[in-house]
């Protein structure tokens, strides 16, 4: 009798998890995705508003150039460059 009870419990858990993953998990996933898209849209709206305020602050005819720092490494102390020519042997 104990073995029958164990088999029934295993089947109950198996079909319970199967039901959860087929029905409940997609619902939770779509809810989570919709929340994340709303957060992303709100974040985008704030950045667009900040850009609009910055643009409005500029005076007419004023030119601003934004530059980024270059990440070039200096190669002065690394070695010497040797110029060479290819010589064809006859």
Description:
The chain has 90 residues and is mostly helical. The protein has one helix and no strands. The chain has one helix spanning 2-57.
Task: Describe, in short, the structure shown.
Helix content is 62%, strand content 0%. The model has no long low-confidence stretch (mean pLDDT 81).
Termini gap: 97 Å
Characterize the overall form: flat
> What is the residue-mean pLDDT, rounded to a whole number?
81
> What is Rg?
33 Å
Report the major sheet: none
SSE class: mainly alpha
Low-pLDDT segments, ≥5 res: none
Helix and strand topology:
Layout lengths: L1 H56 L33
List keywords for this structure.
90 residues, mainly alpha, 62% helix, single chain
């Amino acid at each position: 009798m104990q073995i029958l009870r164990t088999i029934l419990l295993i089947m109950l858990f198996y079909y319970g998890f199967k039901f959860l993953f087929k029905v409940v998990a997609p619902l939770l996933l779509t809810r989570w995705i919709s929340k994340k898209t709303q957060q992303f849209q709100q974040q985008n709206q704030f950045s667009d508003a900040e850009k609009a305020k910055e643009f409005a602050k500029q005076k007419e005819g004023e030119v601003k150039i934004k530059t980024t720092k270059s990440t070039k490494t200096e190669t002065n102390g690394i070695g010497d460059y040797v110029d060479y020519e290819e010589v064809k042997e006859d």
